[in-house]
User: Fold this.
Amino acid sequence: MIIKDKKKFLRAIFIIIGIVVFINILIPDKAFSHQELTTKTVVVTSGDTLWNIAKVEQESNDYYEDKDIREIIYDIQQKNDLGSSSLKINQVLEIPTY
Assistant:
């Protein structure tokens, strides 16, 4: 590649660098950050149902924020390989959380 006008070439390079810097300033870092998904353990006690557990998680767990209770129940069932909504006392459930 032959550069005929060095001033125009340098001006173009500086404009490109300026645009990249400007975009990096405008876009917040958190847009690219990913929260690390972890799990917490819930031990089923007498009277617990998937609905009750899901309701508590909906109210207190950021992972399930703004999700429908039925989606939460389905997600808990999938993550714990539950074939039905029946729970047993002392059964251990893994619940996703941030």
